[in-house]
């Protein structure tokens, strides 16, 4: 691998293929795979990731918002795209670009039907979301008759899938709750199918659902974090490979004497001789201020260098007193080692936040 010459997010498509195949190996051959590529494919590069997954013949893609789906269509993605949280103001555009909305309450269902009729659609594919305990988005069980009566009134839309989302699939202490969500979803979908007279696809599992609840894979699974290399457990993290590696370089090295300070607000005060390195990455790049003052670290020549002082907008300073390195050397923020989940733990967050937080000004590079 050539060494980084600036701050760069490397995206490893081989790792993506490995993760996709590993997750697929957990499924029955007739269970469909929906790849979640929202939020720039978890901070990597949604177009490149989606193009590659389309080549691997993924069944479905999902994004959160309409503009994310439009970007995929502009990049030549032809697979069906589920929009998890569309806003009514974008429904005309959504239809123009053949994106499929998740509809989760009466208001949004009626707003969508109105636009679909106005746009003279017939059997436009939609997805009905039920709330089974996350209490975020979704119809409840008692809405079934209302939904099916609305659907019966119009030929403009047709339900492609019925789905729900698990609240704690990664937490085996919450197994009882998760099983209750799965049961409740099964009852709801059975009643929906009876009332509709046809059977849409059923899905409830995210990545941890795939790994922990094989009995709940149903017709399709929705995986995000697993594709990018994280399984929400140490055991599963070993079976997956991180897709993204965030690298930087050393811009400058300073020799600091006892009593001198480093960075804004003079937050770090040295109590002895110290060597520091300044790196071209800061809070505007996704390294939040909480990583400063000795909490977070980077890796230089396989050694840990603590972030000292306050994180600046475009830079951090790290302690390299005991590291043999020079200006221009490569720095690893996260990747294979340390993983983004280890990096995340230094400030009590999770891999999801770290990888989605890498700002768009950092160059993406396919490797
Ligand atoms: C983000 C999201 C997923 C993906 O979850 P992972 O834990 O990343 O696999 C699946 N379903 C819904 C509704 C989501 O919002």
UniProtKB/TrEMBL annotation:
Residues annotated with N6-(pyridoxal phosphate)lysine modification: 38
An annotated GO BP: D-alanine biosynthetic process
Catalytic activity: L-alanine = D-alanine
Record-linked Pfam families: Ala_racemase_C, Ala_racemase_N
Protein name: Alanine racemase
Annotated GO MF terms: alanine racemase activity; pyridoxal phosphate binding
Cofactor(s), by name: pyridoxal 5'-phosphate
ATP-binding as UniProt keyword: no
Organism in which the protein naturally occurs: Ichthyenterobacterium magnum
Pathway it works in: Amino-acid biosynthesis; D-alanine biosynthesis; D-alanine from L-alanine: step 1/1
Taxonomic lineage of the native organism: Bacteria, Pseudomonadati, Bacteroidota, Flavobacteriia, Flavobacteriales
Assigned protein family: Belongs to the alanine racemase family.
Alanine racemase C-terminal domain ranges (all copies): 243-367
One GO CC annotation: cytosol
Domain of life from the UniProt record: Bacteria
EC number: 5.1.1.1
Binding site for substrate: 136, 313
Record function comment: Catalyzes the interconversion of L-alanine and D-alanine. May also act on other amino acids.
Keywords assigned by UniProt, alphabetized: Isomerase, Pyridoxal phosphate
Gene3D superfamilies xref list: Alanine racemase, Lyase, Ornithine Decarboxylase, Chain A, domain 1
Keyword Cell membrane belongs to the record: no
Active site positions: 38, 264
């Amino acid at each position: 691998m050539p060494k980084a010459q600036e701050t760069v997010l490397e995206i490893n498509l081989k790792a993506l293929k490995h993760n996709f195949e590993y997750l697929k190996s957990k499924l029955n051959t007739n269970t469909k795979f929906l790849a979640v590529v929202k939020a720039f494919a978890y901070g990597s590069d949604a177009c490149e990731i989606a193009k590659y997954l389309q080549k691997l013949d993924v069944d479905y893609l999902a994004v959160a918002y309409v503009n994310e789906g439009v970007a995929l269509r502009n990049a030549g993605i032809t697979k069906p795209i589920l929009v998890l949280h569309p806003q009514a103001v974008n429904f005309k555009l959504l239809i123009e670009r053949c994106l499929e909305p998740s509809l989760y309450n009466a208001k949004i269902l009626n707003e969508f039907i109105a636009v679909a009729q106005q746009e003279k659609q017939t059997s436009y594919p939609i997805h009905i979301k039920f709330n089974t305990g996350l209490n975020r988005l979704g119809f409840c069980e008692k809405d079934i008759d209302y939904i099916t009566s609305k659907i019966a009134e119009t030929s403009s839309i047709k339900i492609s899938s019925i789905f729900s989302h698990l609240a704690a699939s990664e937490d085996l202490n919450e197994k009882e709750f998760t099983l209750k969500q799965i049961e409740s979803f099964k009852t709801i979908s059975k009643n929906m199918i009876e009332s509709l007279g046809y059977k849409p696809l059923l899905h409830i599992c995210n990545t941890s659902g795939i790994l922990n609840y094989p009995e709940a894979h149903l017709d399709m699974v929705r995986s995000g974090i697993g594709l990018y290399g994280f399984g929400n457990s140490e055991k599963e993290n070993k079976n997956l490979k991180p897709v993204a590696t965030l690298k930087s370089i050393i811009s400058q090295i300073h020799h600091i004497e006892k009593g001198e300070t480093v960075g804004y607000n003079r937050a770090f005060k040295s109590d002895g001789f110290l060597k520091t390195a300044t790196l071209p990455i800061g809070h505007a790049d996704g390294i939040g201020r909480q990583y400063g003052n000795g909490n977070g670290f980077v890796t230089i020549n396989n050694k840990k260098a603590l972030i000292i002082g306050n994180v600046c907008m475009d830079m951090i300073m790290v302690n390299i007193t005991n590291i043999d390195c020079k200006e221009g050397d490569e720095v690893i923020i996260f990747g294979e080692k340390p993983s983004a989940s280890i990096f995340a733990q230094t400030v009590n967050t999770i891999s999801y936040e770290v990888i989605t937080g890498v700002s768009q000004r950092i160059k993406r590079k396919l490797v």
